């Protein structure tokens, strides 16, 4: 049996295809900026949780009473 030929994936579309949405999104620029900032803040918080637990376990429970 011969292997099947690789299927060609759809070529990625450029982001310029989204430029048509700009007139509709323009009134919501402040909300979009706030949403982006809060998304970054939330992502950073999620990444810091394991570090906080590591410090809690290493230093919080490691001290003699």
Short description:
This protein is mainly alpha-helical and 65 residues long. The protein has helices at residues 22-25, 29-60.
What is the makeup of the main sheet?
none
Please report the distance between the alpha carbons of the first and last residues. Answer: 70 Å
The count of DSSP E runs of length 2 or more, i.e. the number of strands, is 0
Low-confidence stretches: none
**Over the alpha carbons, how many angstroms does the gyration radius reach?**
24 Å
Give the overall pLDDT as a whole number.
84
Secondary-structure element series: HH
Shape: flat
Q: DSSP helix count?
A: 2
Share in helix = 55-70%
Share in β-strands:
under 5%
Category by helix and strand content = mainly alpha
What would you say this structure looks like, in words?
- The radius of gyration is 24 Å and the shape is flat.
- The protein is an all-alpha fold.
- It has helices at 22-25, 29-60.
- The protein starts with 21 loop residues before the first helix and ends in a 5-residue tail after the last helix.
- The protein is built from 2 helices and no strands.
